[in-house]
Amino acid sequence: MLFATAWRNLWRQPTRTGLSLLSMAFAAALLVFMLSFQLGVYDTMKANALRIFDGFAQIQPPGYADDPDVRKTIAAPDQLASRATEIAGVTAAAPRATSYVILANGELSYGAAIEGVEPDQERHVSTLAATVHQGRYLRQDDADAIVLGDALARNLKVSLGDNVTLLGSAIDGTIAADSLKLVGIFHTGINQLDRQIAEMPLGRFRQTFAMGDKANVIALAGPTLAAVNAALPALASLARTKGLTVEDWGVLQPALKQAITLDFSTSMLWYVSLVVVVVFIILNTLLMSVLERTREFGMLLAIGMRSGLIGRMLWIELVLLAVIGNAIGIAIGAAFALWFGQYGIAFGAIEGLMAQWGLPGRLYPTLSLTSALAGPVVIVLSVAFAGLIPFRRIRRLEPVVAMGVA
Amino acid sequence: MTDNATANQAHSRRIDLRLLAVLAALCLIGVAIGTPDVAVAADATALLRVAFDNWRAKSSETTLTMTIHRPSWERHLTMTAWTHGDNEALVRFTAPAKDAGNATLKLRNQTWIYNPKLNQVVKLPASMLAQSWMGSDFSYNDLSKAEDVLTEYTHKIIDTATSGGHTVYTIEAIPKPGAPVVWGKQEAKVRDDGIFVEEIFFDQDMKPVRKMTTDKIAPLGGRAYPVVLTMRPTNKPGQWTRINTTSGKFNIALPAYIFTQSNLQNPRD
After folding, report:
1. Which of A128, A268, B29, B57 lies 20 to 30 Å from A315, alpha-carbon distance?
2. Is the predicted pLDDT of residue B44 greater than 90, yes or no?
3. Residue A220 · residue A59 · CB < 8 Å
């Protein structure tokens, strides 16, 4: 009864209701789309940045993330890697060894991180192999091969087939020295990787660095970052049995995590302002209509309707308005998010900037339950809460006086 | 020809980077040399200068052993080191066989490394200066920037104490504004006869990062000398590197070819 009355009241003023609906629908649609876009971009950033090299998570010796030392090792890494891939959500696991070394060509020498990798497993964890644009990536049967980032190769003035000298510090304290043949040059677009990373076969790395059959980390991959994140607890308990730890994407890409947190908190300010503005607009309309309908309320009081009931009726009107407006907004926002999720939004002009984060020139919003509902739910709740304000006014109404109002 | 080859082999076996580190460390510590009672006025800079001169003299040729200690293992290396003035140093490792032949040459602020397996001289890139030298607790910086504490820092005596009949000055060295240095601060204890007793290295946050102590002062090459030095990183308990100078000649005439890249790769003597 109350609900029906409220519904009918809404449509007594179709223009005003329509405008209120529109403003709420617009705000909700904006929130849904923006949030979908933002979360989608974050997902892309994380996935792309991690997929190039780090992997979605890594099994590491304790303390390795803070102080990556070639002497902090994982024993029997192959066995551990195959056990990790048995966990749901993990599709590939690649043992790696890493050390910071001098790479030299004649008079030229540069510091670089050399990675010992198993080419077959590595391809499933890192997309670096696909960015080789000169020569080829490492093969399982390679012995003395090395691949370099293009900036590093340029600095060293080496081209395919040239020898690269490696000088570092082996695990047993002796000098690790090796001479490797350049078979491939990669370009990931990420400056740090192209300038600092070199890869060689893990077997050769182990000989050169007197490493036995150990590795430093095991890089993990899955169908999505979320799938690997969901597998983290199982991975952590597996790692614990060997006295190791699992590090998630935030530890592997701390700068990215900070950038995302910063970006999200800034945009949060915008979202909150948007919600506040919308809620005030609706509240303003509501108060106006209460003022306008004083006569009507006076009459309702005179025929015996309790003021509390009138307040509830008004509140229901308002919540109806909010729910309908936001439902429309979700529909519009979701439609846009889905459409652009399919076709992407081109960002040609700042492509170079975005490449730093491993982002492509075209970005895709991702519609999720969170991005679709978070904004609208906040609007509806705020409106529902603000809708309590008119109660006070209605309680003060005297039937006779109210009916006398023009 | 044959002679040459034999000499080369013998020599390359003796090159070792570790020596350099040791030398560098020694330099820093400022080993004492025998001019006791230099009547050092309490002038901090002069005191450091004397310590440096006592330690390295005009030129030196020393034999050293280096012990690298880790919680799970320990290594011993032997090396020979030559220095000339502040700017020239050569270190060659002679034992064990695995390390013999490696050598480091420092000329002014540039450092080259020779590795016998590669039979190649590699110039040390600037980005590698902070890396460990031969797996020890010394870095290449200790070698290539050894005299920075003299030239790039301002010095002040902050404490004076008496120990074993000697006055020991504690000198605080603060980098000059804009100086390209590694440390936030250094604190050196120097005896009145110009022997380094202790040196503490602070990072940019003024937290102590590592500490080098003189464990034994004994006569060497006609002077009092800090023959045993130990470097300990503060955040890694159970880890240290000790350098023991077993013999030394000072202020000797050294042929100029010693400090050349060609001698680094193909030792002549």
Report:
1. A268
2. no
3. yes
Residue A356's pLDDT band (cuts 50, 70, 90):
low
With 0-12 / 13-18 / 19 or more C-beta atoms within 10 angstroms meaning exposed / middle / buried, residue A326 is: buried
**Minimal Cβ distance to B115: which of A109, A110, A175:** A175
Asked, for residue B5, whether it belongs to a domain, the answer is no
Phi and psi for B161 in degrees, rounded to 5? -140, 165
Q: Which of the residues B72, B75, B128, B133 would you substitute to probe the A interface, choosing the one with the greatest number of A C-beta atoms within 10 Å? A: B128
Which band of pLDDT confidence, cut at 50, 70 and 90, is reported for residue B92? Answer: very high
**A116 CA to chain B: closest CA distance, Å?**
20
For B109, the domain range is 14-265
> What CATH number is attached to the domain comprising B142?
2.50.20.10
Cα separation of the two ends of chain A: 28
What single DSSP character describes residue A215? B
Q: Please give the residue of chain B at the shortest CA–CA distance from A178.
A: B118
Contact A114, A198 (CB under 8 A): yes
Q: What is the ipTM of this complex?
A: 0.71
Residue A99: what residue type?
S
Structural domain contains residue B111: yes
Asked if residues B26 and B65 have their Cβ atoms less than 8 Å apart, the reply is no
Q: Give the whole-angstrom CA distance, residue A320 versus residue B75.
A: 79
CB atoms within 10 A of CB B136: 26
More confident call, A48 vs A199: A199
Domain count across chain B: 1
Average pLDDT over residues A29-43: 90
Residues of A in contact with B135 (CB under 8 A): 169-170, 173-174
Contact between B75 and A173 using a beta-carbon 8 Å cutoff = yes
With respect to residue B8, please indicate whether it lies within any of the assigned structural domains: no
pTM, two decimal places: 0.74
Assigned domain for B3 exists: no
The pLDDT of residue A123: 92
Q: Beta-strand (E) ranges in A283-393?
A: 345-346, 362-363
pLDDT of A230 reads 92
Q: Among all chains, which residue has been given the structure tokens 């020890």?
A: B136
Phi-psi region of A400 (alpha: psi -120 to 50; beta: other; left: phi over 0): alpha
Please tell me the least confidently modeled range out of A92-96, A100-104, A263-267, A356-360.
A356-360
Nearest to A217 by CA among A45, A43, A56, A44: A56
Query: Considering only CA atoms, which of A26, A89, A31, A27 is closest in space to residue A365?
Result: A31
Residue A258: pLDDT above 50? yes
CB contact under 8 A, A174 and B128: no
Domain residue limits, chain A: 2-49+256-404, 57-221
Q: Which helix (H) or strand (E) is B74 found in, with range?
A: strand B74-84
User: Which of A73, A101, A163, A167 would best serve as a mutation to test chain B binding (most B beta carbons within 10 A)?
Assistant: A167
Q: Which of B81, B21, B16 is nearest to B243 (CA)?
A: B21
Residue B237 pLDDT exceeds 50: yes
- Whether omega before A365 lies within 30 degrees of 0, making that bond cis, reads no
**Residue of A128 and B143 predicted with greater confidence:** A128
Strands (E), A216-334: 217-221, 245-247
Residue B106 structure tokens: 């420092």
Q: Is A344 strand, coil or helix? A: coil
Q: 3-state DSSP call for residue B250?
A: strand
